[in-house]
Fold these 2 entries.
Entry 1:
Amino acid sequence: MPSEGGAGPLIRIENVSKSFGTFKAVDDVSLNIEKGELFALLGGSGCGKTTLLRMLAGFEAPTAGKIFIDGQDMAGIPPYDRPVNMMFQSYALFPHMSVEKNVGYGLKHDGMTSAQRTDRVKQMLDLVKLTDFAGRKPHQLSGGQRQRVALARALAKQPKLLLLDEPLGALDKKLREHTQFEIMSIQEKTGITFVVVTHDQEEAMTLASRIAVMDHGKIKQVGTPTDIYEYPNSTFVAGFIGSINMFDGEVTKTSGDVATVQIAQLGGPIMVPAADSLSAGTKISIAVRPEKITISRSRPKGPNSFSGTVKDLGYFGKDSLYRVKMPSGTLVMVNSVNARRAAESERVAQWEDDVWISFDPQSAIALKG
Ligand code: ATP
């Protein structure tokens, strides 16, 4: 079948499902991934993200639906004939081989001359900044360096698509943050499309140009990190990414571009931006991120201000997290940046202080499901 290579998205997933017995691990997923994207599949354990990745690699066949890579239908095409490489969490380096040999291993059967192979390995080691480590064995490397060898090996064959399954899972927090930026820089330099599976929302937010959030085999939302964080389309996505306050409410009126929503947990009405779908009587959830809420000792001007008592205060250096108890008993999380240096006694509020919390109507996310 002729390839349409060049035009259109690199990956086209059309109504793909995968069942294991009667269990649907991936349920009617449709998704396009463009060339050169660093795309993340994000979701909790068992949501189907690895199964979707394995179908792209060719290790699993879809029960229904179609996958196209670079315009070519992948049905019946085995992993080694796909323009795809996969980097596993365990890295799977050969312990008895040097870094150089590990990186060059996959090139042996590619019809390259030995000089071409040496050149490519050099190029890859340079890319992952391991030229000085070429002669070492994997056990003589740190976890981060091993991860880079695995990346160099996966990129050596110059695939159109690189699949990475929890690539940073084995690294500690500090190294993980550092390596995230390295992966981004390598992806940018090579221009190869990366699809990363992760359960770590911060990792997805940092790494990816776009994210698909998955739950129970379905894609709940696809968007840029900003879309997903600031404009979640469901209570699931809002709650999955970052922390958030969620209130139940009912629209009491809409006027112009403002809707008024009665929130029993806050003890009063709030203003939110009106959307077409909001009319009096609509039951909705209102989500507000903790960092969008201001805490103050005196009553602020404007709408969406409520009084409560500080029940919890966590000081984290750069910011503080307050839990403010409303008269209804609801606890509201407020995250406040410690922008200036201040002694404890100078902080905006202490335990048991009576305070005001407030937020801009634009910061309230109205969600129906
Ligand atoms: P995790 O982060 O825990 O790896 P995941 O989102 O990657 O989760 P998958 O590995 O895709 O999840 O698995 C999705 C579901 O399908 C799980 O409930 C899993 O038990 C099931 N599953 C996966 N592979 C098989 C298989 N070969 N046979 C039967 N069930 C399977």
Entry 2:
Amino acid sequence: MSKIHVMDNALANMIAAGEVVERPSSVIKELVENSIDAQSRQIGVFIYDAGRTKIVVEDDGVGMDRTDAVAAFKRHATSKILTTFDLFRIKTLGFRGEALPSIASVSKMTLVTCDGSNAGTSVVSEDDELTTHDAPMRQGTIVTVEELFYNTPARLKYLKSDFTENANSIETMCRLALAHPEIAMTLYIDDRKNFSTSGRGNLLETIKDIYGLDVAQKMIPFHYSNNDFSVDGFLGKPEMAKANRYFIITLLNGRNVYMPKVQSTIVDSYHDFIPPTRFPFVVLEMTIDPALVDVNVHPSKREVRFSKEGDLRLALLEKIPEALRGKNLVPDIVSVPKAPVIVKEEQLALEFDTYTPKPISPEVEVFSAPEVTVFKEPEVSFNEPAHAETQIQSLKALCQLHLTYLVAEDDQGGFYLIDQHAANERINYEKLQKLMNATLTVSEPLIPIVVHLNPSEMALLNNEKMALLESVGLKLDPFGINAYQVRQIPSWAKEYDEQAYVDDILHEALHGDKIDIPKLRTHVIATMSCKRSVKAHDRLSLSEMQYLLDTLLRCENPHSCPHGRPTIVHFTQYEIEKMFKRTGV
Ligand code: ADP
Ligand code: MG
């Protein structure tokens, strides 16, 4: 007996929903994209209970007549493409004719719509049944999605916390709004306004509406075009660099797209301007002939292929630094990242009493190179004697090799190579561990610090996260639109870059995987000890080298860095003599 049969519609829709409707934010993306395609000038989105109970998207677009309103619920029903010819020249956001039937198959959906010339229609879809009524309605469409995933318990269970789901939805809305500054978009969450954009068609104004004036004032306009594509948007000044890639927003023909290669090109193009561990804040819109773009890669259309991606990469690598170079990038004094601690020769002499600086050596001329940050330890003492297995009692610094390794000698005739970064990391690690285990003393930051969050991060920052931040000494007060002012910071953070401390901890608290207090503390210790350490290629003065060595030798475990790599290698007198065949062995 033959076994193959064609699936019924309800089943096929649910299978398609599996790909297109992953979570509330995907419903919002699909419905708002439909509103955009319908030439709306205003779109309002209302989310209740993180989208579990209700999502409403209303627009003032072209609307539908009754026949279309019913047809829209059919699979593969679309007004957007007709032929395969159209498929290769897609100008609309939708074209697969899948979203409405897919969402309707996993929820209770009501579509109220009017095209302005006929009476309004309401179509209710529940359990694969459609009922149609007259509805008083101005031109436009209102789609209400209730009880999302009521019939797919696995999907429902897979949803994350309300905060995470809301954050996803907000992020989705921000990107849709940035991609369409000409449409006024408003987002309400549980009847509270999250953000709204003016719809006046100005991208910078939209950036201001979403991220605040302070951010918009630090954006540099960017424009580039050739025969195949053009790129327009704004480059954040280097001072706005972020700890993550979330703020590299790439839009293509009105669509927020995931283009990992373009993103990393943007990161690369900033490499002269920001440290390698930071990421720029960039909003760039690429306009490309639709014939050169394949959006039909994945049902969610988040990934696209573009045949001239190589050319785009080259153009960005050249033009972004060019645009940045011409501009005044000196940060405003209020948000200036605190200069790293520079240990001066005289200070060292005062603070480190067992070491007396040598008479001026050639390296001393460059000791104040601004990037040199050597850890000082004014507060915590390392007075305990070194462990028994630490045989090295003292080392004399001689010079720096490749600006990366210290060369030192002991009084046994051997010599040592010390990895300056690994050594400094070990010192900082042990110091921070002690500081974190002791009672935290906190104080106000030296320079006022204001942190700007994107709206999705604002939603993530609940009381629980605030408590988490307090466990590492951070207290924040609301400060204007999508921003917080830092009220309290651990006193020891003053020795470091306070702004970087705040950015990093906040990022980890908001985005870290299953983050709790012990995890956050470990993270603080690990990243701060790395970040605050001298790097390879940092030039050190002789006294800085000596200070590093002396402090290292008083660590509990001077031999390896916190990641387990060695800090010191030793060449014995015997090995040296053997190499030069002076021993006769
Ligand atoms: P697609 O967007 O891929 O065409 P959808 O299932 O999302 O498929 O929508 C089906 C059709 O319903 C669309 O092609 C459009 O004609 C109509 N439609 C959906 N939403 C709206 C809306 N907000 N305003 C006007 N027409 C809409
Ligand atoms: Mg659609």
